[in-house]
Design goal:
Largest sheet: 2 strands, antiparallel
Structural class: mainly alpha
Shape: elongated
Number of helices: 10
Order of helices and strands: HHHHHHEEEEHHHH
Helix content: 55-70%
Strand content: 5-15%
Number of strands: 4
Number of domains: 1
Distance between the termini: 21 Å
Amino acid sequence: MNKKTFSLLPPATRFVWIGLLSMILVVALNLPLSLYASVSGNRTWTLWAASGGWALPALFYLIATLLGIPSLMKGRDFRGTRLQRALGFLGPLAILAGFMVVAHTLDPCHRGWWDLQSRINNLPLCEYYWGEVTIDTRFHWLMHALPDPIFLAGYWLVLRKWHPDFTRSAQSHQHLSEK
């Protein structure tokens, strides 16, 4: 999409695009940095540590969710059904939930699939943390980063199929702007 095509989109759709691009940026940074942190054991390379312990990826997903609010609101410039309008909000919200909840739901140590003696090349996989057995800290950030590309790809496919302004070509936007 070029600058001219982007300017032809309704404002609510522009916000959805900006939110989508911010989430793509977070996934493109978070996944390799988390993988490096788990392999090297150097936790300072994760986006979590870079932000002083704050959940920087979650903040970007929250911003993308907030950018989807205008698409929920009925406006004269937005075409589509209520469900189509809700995609700009519900998609980033699902990715945020996947980032925060799915990782802990599938924690193999917490679910009992691994125990405190589980190791790979003498590296512990599990640790005792805040009164329960959970995945070792060096793998924790990777566990949060792994669901993101899957959820993001699903969101992109749903937008492409069902969101009216993502399915339209640049030529149809040009045609609509000339009316």
